[in-house]
């Protein structure tokens, strides 16, 4: 099913080893839930989390693909269920400096681990990355916990127990059932339904969740006691004073790209946005009268329409610093992990591969994004060695004017 090539996420290229953990602060639907990637210390025994942390996500993907769960979910689990993410689960945080932050927003039908390759690379280059799992019913599946009536008075961040059995590192652990786990499925749109009102509503909810994740990281940075609903060995207190809250970016793919654009317009703490193959449809025209911070569009060759490109170009007229490049030979899934983890058969069936080599395509995305982030976050790094990519100067890269 995988073909003949090696199907795995590539190791990060930056100077730092990378760890990750899952954070759910407040167990309710209104709480914050994200996977955190961070520079870590070298340690002896390293646990690698599964790329698909729970089987329910396979069922969610089947729903999103409009396939029968009965056969599609087992096939997806067979194809992807064994993959591990090459990071240290709950690895010791490297508290040696103040790190810039990236809040990452996933695309429609995805979940928090689908962009691990990009997030790992950013963390290896010295960022702390929070990959939000959205609860606006745009994820293929996600979960939270329902409280007994007497538990509703507990403060946000209360430690709670989880009743679902574990499936490996990165999955909730078994414990005496106190809270009831509730899965939130992907919301399908009826054929006769106008999808713009829903997508625009979801867009605003997504932006709120990105800002809420940043709120939580700011509280951690300030030394507030934040108790993670999900059990594990990682103590958030070790991150106190280690985030540079003046150097924060928002990044996302597809629906996450439009989320990043609106987030940088609504929340001034985000100094710039990286929109990977942004889905422009959910945005309203008032975005063009907004005072935006710098936005970098990294487009695939196959996904964008003339109308979408024109919407991106309209942002030029607001005197915002906008850059748009296209990666030749790429498709919409070229900026997700699926492009790396599917062989030729699944790659053709689900259009996860373009003509460009998947690793090379992601490498261009990462390098161009790092160059943009250095320029607009004021980083003292060497990412400016890739500045030419921002001008469309490079193999497989075109500047959109």
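Sequence proposed for the structure above (401 residues):
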């Amino acid at each position: 099913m995988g073909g003949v090539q090696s199907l795995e996420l590539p190791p990060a290229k930056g100077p730092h080893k990378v760890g990750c953990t899952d954070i759910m602060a407040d167990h309710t639907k209104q709480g914050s839930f994200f996977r955190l990637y961070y520079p870590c210390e070298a340690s002896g025994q390293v646990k690698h989390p599964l790329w698909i942390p729970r089987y329910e996500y396979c069922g969610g993907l089947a729903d999103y693909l409009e396939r029968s769960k009965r056969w599609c979910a087992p096939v997806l689990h067979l194809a992807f269920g064994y993959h591990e993410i090459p990071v240290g689960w709950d690895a010791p945080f490297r508290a040696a400096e103040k790190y810039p932050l990236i809040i990452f927003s996933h695309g429609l039908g995805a979940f928090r681990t689908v962009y691990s390759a990009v997030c790992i690379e950013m963390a290896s280059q010295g960022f702390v990355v929070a990959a939000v799992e959205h609860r606006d019913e745009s994820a293929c599946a996600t979960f939270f916990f329902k409280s007994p009536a007497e538990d509703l008075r507990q403060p946000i961040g209360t430690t709670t127990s989880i009743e679902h059995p574990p499936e490996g590192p990165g999955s909730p652990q078994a414990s005496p059932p106190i809270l009831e786990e509730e899965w939130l499925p992907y919301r399908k749109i009826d054929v006769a339904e106008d999808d713009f009102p829903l997508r625009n509503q979801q867009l605003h909810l997504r932006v709120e969740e990105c800002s809420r994740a940043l709120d939580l990281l700011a509280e951690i940075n300030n030394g507030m006691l934040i108790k993670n609903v999900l059990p594990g060995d990682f103590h958030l207190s070790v991150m106190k004073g280690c985030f540079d809250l003046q150097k924060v970016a928002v990044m996302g793919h597809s629906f996450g790209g439009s989320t990043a654009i609106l987030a940088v317009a609504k929340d001034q703490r985000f100094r710039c946005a990286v929109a990977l193959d942004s889905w422009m449809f959910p945005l309203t025209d008032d975005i063009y009268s907004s005072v935006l911070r710098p936005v970098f569009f990294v487009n695939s060759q196959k996904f964008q329409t003339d109308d979408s490109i024109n919407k991106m170009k309209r942002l030029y007229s607001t005197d915002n610093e906008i850059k748009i490049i296209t990666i030749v030979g790429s498709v919409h899934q070229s900026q997700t992990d699926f492009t790396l983890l599917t062989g030729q058969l699944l790659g053709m069936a689900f259009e996860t591969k373009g003509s460009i080599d998947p690793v090379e395509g992601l490498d261009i995305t990462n390098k161009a994004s790092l160059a943009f982030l250095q320029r607009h976050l004021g980083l003292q790094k060497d990412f400016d060695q890739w500045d030419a990519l921002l001008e469309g100067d490079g193999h497989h890269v075109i500047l959109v004017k």
